[in-house]
Amino acid sequence: GFDGTSIRDIAARAGDTIGTLSYHFGTKDALLSEVVRRRFHELGEMRRARYRTLAAASPDGKVSLEDTIACILVPFVDRALRGDEEWHSYIGLLGRMMYVHDGAHAADIADLTDPISNELLGWLHDAAPGAARTDLAHAYRFMIGAMIDACSDHSAVRVGRVTGETASLKD
Question: What predicted TM-score, i.e. pTM, was given to this entire model?
Answer without folding.
Answer: 0.79
